Amino acid sequence: MSTIWLVLLGLAMGAIFGVALEKSRVMEPGVLVGQFQFRNFTMLKMFLAATITGLVALAVLNGAFGVALHPKTFALGPVLIGGLILGVGIALAGACPGTALAQAGAGYRDAYAVIAGGIAGAIFYGYNIDWIGAALSFGSYGKITFADLLPLPFWGLALILAAILAAFLLVVLERLVPWQADMDKAEALLDVDAVQAGHGYSAPAE
Amino acid sequence: MLSLSKRHWSPYVAGIVIGLLQIPAFLLVNTALGASSSFVTAGAWVASLFDAGAADIAYFAKYMSADKYIWQSALVIGIALGALLSARASGSRRAAFSPAWTRLTGVTSLGSRLALGFVGGFVLLLGARIAGGCTSGHGISGMAQLAVGSTVAVAAMFAGGILTAALMKKI
Fold this sequence. Notes:
The complex is a heterodimer. Chain A is mainly alpha-helical. Helix content of chain A is 72%, strand content 0%. Chain A has eleven helices and no strands. In chain A, α1 crosses α5 (97-106), α3 (42-65) packs antiparallel against α9 and α5 packs antiparallel against α6. Chain A is globular, with a radius of gyration of 20 Å. By secondary structure, chain B is mostly helical. Chain B has a domain at 1-93. Chain B contains nine helices and no strands. Chain A: Keywords: Membrane, Transmembrane, Transmembrane helix.
C-alpha cells in the first residue's frame, strides 16, 4: 500500500476516533481520573462498548472470512510492570497516548506537555530497551488468547464475552450510574469560573 | 444521532464508533487499532536529529519505516484534527488546562500543570512501551481479540491508575 494512501486512511480513521473521544468527553482529565476514583463511569462504558463492538466485528471477520488476528504476546513481566506504570501515567497525565492528542485538538494547552513528555519517554525506552527488557523478561507465554485455552473457537468465545459484557453494561452499570448524569458532571468541569467558585460540580460529601 | 454539532454522544455510541474502526484497521492495514507506537515513531525521528546513530538502533529503525507505524502516526494526528473539528462544531470551549486539575491536585498555574503533564506523559509512554501497548492497543484491541496478556495489562493499568488517583483529592 502506498504511503500517501496509508496517511490519508490514518487521518480519516483518526478524525472519526477524535470526534468520538471529544463527543463522549472520554478525553477530559476529570473524566479519566474520575473513573479511577469511581466518580464517573464514562470511560469504562466507552471502553466496554468499543470492546464489545470489536469482539463482534472480529468474530465475524475471523470466524466467517478467516481474517488473521494480531494478539500481542503475553509476557507477564512487561505486561504487569508496564501496565502498572502506564496506569500511574494515565492518572498523572490525565490522558492515554491517544486521548492526549484529542486534548490538544480540543484546545487544552497542557496536552502538548503530555505529548512532549510521551515522546521523551519513548526515546528513553528506546535507548534503554536492553536492560529494561532483561530485567522484566520473566513469564513469557507467546501470543495466546483465551480461545487457545478453552475448547471453543474464537468467534464463539468472542460472542459469548460480548453478550456478557453488554448485559453487564446495560443491566447493571447503566442502571446504577446513568450516562447522562456523568456527562453533566463532565460538562460542569469545563467551566473554569464555576469550578473555582466551587459551584460547577459538587463532589459527594467525604 | 451522530451529529457533529451536538455537544455530546453517549459513551455507548462513541464506543461503537471506535470499535467499528477495527474493521478497516484489520482489512486495510492488517493491524489492530493502537496509538502508543506512534510516539516511538516521533521519538525515533526526534532522536535522529540529535544522534546520528539513533536510526541504527533496531527498535527505532522498525518504527521509522513499517507501513503500520506510518498509518498509526497519521491516525493520532487525525485524532487531534477530529477533536478540534468536534469541539469547534459544537462550541465546546476549553481553558488552557482542565479546571479538574485544580480540584484534583491544587495546581492553579499553567506552568505547574505543564511540568506535571510532562512527567505524566513520560511515565505514560515508558509504561506503554514496556507493556507493548496502551489503552487502545492492549485495551480496546487486545480485549477484543481475547488476548490473555492484554487482559493482564488492562488490569494492571486500572490498578496503577486507581492507586495514583487515590492520592489525589476527590473530584
